[in-house]
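Blinded run. Sample ID left blank on purpose so nobody reads anything into the name before looking at the predicted structure. Input follows.
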Amino acid sequence: MNILEAFRLALNSINTHKLRSVLTTLGVMIGVMTVIGMLALIDGLNRTVSNQLASIGSNTLYVQKHGWVMNRDEAIRARRRRNLTLEDAKDIERRLEPAQRIASMLMSTVTVRFGNRELDGVQLIGTTPEYQYITEFNIASGRQMTESDMNQSRQNAMIGKTVAEELFPSREPVGKSILVGRHRFEVTAVLEEKGSLFGNDQDNAIVIPLTTFVKLFSGPITPRGGESVTIIVKPSSPEQIDDVKGDLTRILRQRRNLRPGEEDDFSINSADQLMATYRTITSGIFGLMIGVTALSLIVGGIGIMNIMLVSVAERTREIGIRKAVGARKRDIHSQFLIEAISLSVTGGIIGTVLGFMVAWAVSRLINLPAAVTWWSVVLGFLFSASVGVFFGWYPARRAASLKPIEALRYE
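Blinded prediction complete.
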């Protein structure tokens, strides 16, 4: 008997016992559905997070008082650290290789008004002209910030898309005057949309010259008072990021008189660091998913083994007749093994379709993009086929080992 004939017999058997076949493959279905659905959601989430982190600048280092990822004890220790000052930023700019792009930044939250329209909770960013090149934001209309704006502390503002839509729903914002807190600013540009970062609307923001921010919105900045400056450094090439990180650490440790072996009292953060932390978390979820799926597949496999043993018992006389007319052991073995694999793969195919549907439904419900990859489908197919081989081997061997005389006498 060739393989095609064995498959035909297996499909006939599945078709004859439809309900029993569905119930038998239920565990495999649930296992494969879980794998496909979870992989689609995790992959979609990975792509979303990667795109969001790219919006704060890839291969960019943020020198700050606090780390981005801290436990409770680290957060308490970080609060006692000395501030980073504008003098720290100037010294880094002077001592770091000229090829690197460097910007300083201070942030606050303000209320913005135009006419009778008002918007609360707007992120106010005071920074230098290099910021726009480092963080790769583009101008939708108007002009970029210049060194002249910085040197003369001009009250010019570049506004995000959300601010533009809220304050100027039906007119061009560039050239208009707005109130930022209590101070009047001229809108010089509207920024292109950047989207959200972990739920924070990056377009609900206003960018102004750093010198203007210090003059109007910040008190004196000292190591122990005022606000801590964020220093942003973009290496001239991604390969230099470790070297630049080492240079930054050396410069700041010297400025802060830290002794050898003493812990850094500053943090150097990057989007890659956040991505690594995120991948660690999703790896844990993936491992848990694999454990749940493995249990489900084992349960499904035991169901297949059980039903195949029942099938061998029911068809003992049939096996005896086939052997009596010349069927070999390997023919009987192949027939029952292929029947077990067919059962399992059928469950895998149904589970794959259900996995697509679950991923699609969840992505619609919670607005999370799902991305089904070809390798997840192959993985689901291989899982289900492996279950069929592993749990179908023993019943097939048992059927093949039956002696023709005893099988024909079986009642």
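Unblinding after everyone has recorded impressions. The radius of gyration is 33 Å.
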